[in-house]
Amino acid sequence: MSGKSSKSKSKSSKSREPYYAVSPQWKDVSPIPLIDGPPGQQKDPGPALATIAYSPRYSEAMSYLRAVMAVNEFSRRALDLTEDIIGMNPAHYTVWLYRAKILKVLWDLEGTSIEDGVKVELEWLDGISERALKNYQIWHHRQLLMSLLPTMPNTEPGFLSHILSFDSKNYHVWTYRAWLCRRFPDPLLNTDVELDAVDALIAQDVRNNSAWSHRYFVVFGAEELRYIEEQGGNRKDVLASGSLVVDEEVVEREVNYTKDRIAWAPQNPSPWNYLKGVAKRAAVPIGDFQVYCESFVGGRNADLMGDQVRSSHAIDWLADIYKEDGNPQKSKACLDALGQKWDPIRRKYWEYRARQMGDV
Description:
By secondary structure, the protein is mainly α. 64% of the residues lie in helices and 0% in strands. InterPro entries: Prenyl_trans_a.
């Protein structure tokens, strides 16, 4: 018991001890403390209404950061200072931006190549990334570094797989990954490297909607974005215009791939949504999937309230298919089944869709 108390006390006292104020390396710097008081009363602001309980150690480091930023100091000690502050608060975006500026200046002054400089910084950044998985600033900094390189480091795909092993649905990682594909289309988009990586993640968890979304981006989305950026317009109009080239072999591959994964878990919405996206992208009539969807409910004239139904998503598709086929009665029967039995939590939504068809 006394050992724990002593350890806790030592850690607490360390956080209160001055560091920069007693460091010979920083003796020429006059720290700029944070003034929390009302604006316009900087000499004697008085107590602020609500202040953040910064630790003394963090407050001291920030006061020295303000001092070096005020004179635009881009030095090794300033770089070390940013590392210290990021270690205490990795979400401080101003520190990350300042660090990026310091790196570029130092590389130039010290004759370090961009490739070598980025490599060293990435090695440091990898460790920080593991300790702050959901931190946006880390991934923005990584993006800045990668944008300086002519080719993608061959270690990057492995690193992303490692980070996603902690949380396979980390939004910041997937956003960065999409950017990386556009930054380095060769090899990520021009070969099967990225597609194989996403396939492995879907195999691990077929319900990983992030992986399904990224698969669409790799197969179709990147091309859509490139076309919109070059030609203007929005995605809805571009798809409706039929301006995008559709590779029928790719569409067939994706349809078959998705059907196989739906078979793994018919009630999983992710592949159903993906299949709908593929059909829309390729302008495949939804009616072409009627027999396929009916196979999940027991056949063409099956009881939609019966136990043979294996997927409520198939019923949702059939509601649209029957409506387009001019059979509003069967469409409403699908919506009624969804609202009454298979998806009652969204009953109001299904009733709304039924009302949109009017009296039949």
